[in-house]
């Protein structure tokens, strides 16, 4: 009996071994070209112009002693065109000796001209296909094309995509002057009730007039760089305008997305001197009120900060009221940033702060009644802003140093 069972198990194992094949769709790393960033513009014939950064692993790994590895540009910039995005992607095959792999694509950059015409259709491939990730940042090149932006580099990183991926969280955590704008966020806002999509604004800082790097085999110097900050404002799938960095932080106060930053205010009692307040955290809340078929919006913001720097002879011990006055100045500075953001989005007539979504949460039935004419109501909304500002600490010293 034991021998029969053992023989049966042996036969079963042999049968399973013959039926199990290898990984039929495996892809060897040395046969792939890793796309790290991509950009889309309108082609001259009205089609799609696609530009991609492809990593060159053999150039990335070189050290200082390896002349080729240290000087050769570690990425390849290549462009193709097509009637659709998918066709433009496939047409890259005629120029690349490796199959391009999109799972590492970290940036989807859109030129301003194309963004103003509309991006909904060009995003379909990136949402539908399994290979690209929905975590790619949506970036709009202000006053430029995506191709222009993809010529830029960063001094501290070999790969431009690494540089961009480092700057964006730095701005989020240190300045709060950038928005959350990954592909998944954009698509969610695009389809949600009462809120519009946003993208990350990018500006090109040219260091030399002729900065095309796509034809250079070796990188000897950085010819242009990128500054991230501000907001690309959409209405539906079309770009309608921009928020600058101050206005963007004002919007982030409302959205509860302020992590840190510096508020510069006047010093109490010495109006010609300035004080720097380091923001510790910010929380925002938006509520809609509906009374007699009229909508009003209430914004409540809570903020905490530390005293980071004082130019004058700051001494809260001798003048206790100084601390309370400084909190008032802090409150006024935050209200100023929020007011600047509200003024701009009223001008652009795009509800990126989700006031319509707040109405929908409050009364879905009423929202259905006004949804079709929301942008007739939106510019004249009654909006009240309440800010609660608290200063926590003075740092390692209580008063400023004084000269003898």
UniProtKB/TrEMBL annotation:
Task: Name the membrane topology term.
Answer: Lipid-anchor
Q: Does the keyword Mitochondrion apply?
A: no
Q: Where in the cell is it found?
A: Membrane
Q: Which UniProt keywords apply?
A: Germination, Lipoprotein, Membrane, Palmitate, Signal
What superkingdom does the record give? Bacteria
Please provide, in alphabetical order, the Gene Ontology terms of the cellular component aspect for this entry: membrane
Identify the main location. membrane
The record's comment on protein family reads: Belongs to the GerABKC lipoprotein family.
Protein name in UniProt: Ger(X)C family spore germination protein
Q: Whose protein is this, by species? A: Candidatus Fermentithermobacillus carboniphilus
Q: What is the lineage of its organism?
A: Bacteria, Bacillati, Bacillota, Candidatus Fermentithermobacillia, Candidatus Fermentithermobacillales
């Amino acid at each position: 009996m034991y021998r029969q069972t053992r023989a049966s198990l042996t036969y079963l194992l042999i049968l399973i071994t013959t039926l199990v094949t290898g990984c039929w769709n495996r892809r060897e790393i040395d046969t792939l070209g890793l796309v790290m960033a991509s950009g889309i513009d309108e082609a001259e014939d009205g089609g799609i112009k696609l530009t991609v950064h492809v990593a060159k692993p053999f150039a990335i790994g070189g050290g200082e002693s390896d002349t080729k590895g240290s000087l050769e540009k570690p990425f390849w910039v290549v462009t193709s065109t097509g009637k659709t995005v998918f066709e433009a992607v496939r047409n890259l095959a005629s120029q690349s000796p490796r199959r391009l792999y999109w799972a590492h694509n970290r940036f989807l950059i859109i030129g301003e001209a194309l963004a103003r015409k509309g991006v909904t259709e060009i995003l379909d491939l990136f949402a539908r296909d399994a290979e690209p990730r929905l975590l790619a940042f949506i970036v709009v090149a202000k006053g430029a094309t995506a191709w222009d932006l993809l010529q830029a580099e960063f001094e501290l990183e070999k790969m431009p995509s690494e540089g961009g991926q480092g700057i964006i969280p730095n701005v989020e955590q240190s300045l709060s002057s950038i928005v959350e704008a990954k592909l998944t966020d954009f698509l969610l806002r695009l389809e949600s009730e009462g809120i519009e999509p946003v993208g990350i604004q990018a500006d090109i800082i040219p260091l030399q007039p002729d900065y095309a790097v796509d034809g250079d085999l070796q990188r000897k110097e950085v010819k242009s760089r990128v500054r991230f900050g501000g907001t690309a404002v959409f209405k539906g799938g079309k770009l309608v305008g921009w928020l600058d960095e101050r206005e963007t932080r004002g919007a982030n106060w409302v959205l509860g997305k302020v992590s840190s930053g510096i508020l510069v205010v006047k010093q109490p009692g010495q109006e010609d001197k300035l004080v720097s307040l380091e923001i510790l955290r910010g929380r925002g809340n938006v509520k809609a009120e509906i009374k007699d078929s009229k909508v009003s919006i209430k914004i409540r913001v809570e903020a905490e900060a530390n005293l980071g720097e004082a130019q004058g002879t700051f001494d809260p011990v001798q003048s206790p009221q100084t601390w309370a006055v400084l909190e008032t100045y802090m409150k006024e500075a935050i209200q100023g940033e929020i007011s600047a953001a509200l003024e701009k989005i009223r001008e652009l007539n795009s509800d990126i702060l989700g006031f319509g979504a707040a109405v929908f949460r409050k009364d879905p039935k009423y929202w259905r009644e006004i949804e079709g004419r929301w942008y007739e109501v939106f510019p004249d909304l009654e909006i009240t802003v309440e800010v609660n500002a608290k200063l926590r600490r003075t740092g390692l010293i209580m008063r400023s140093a004084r000269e003898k």
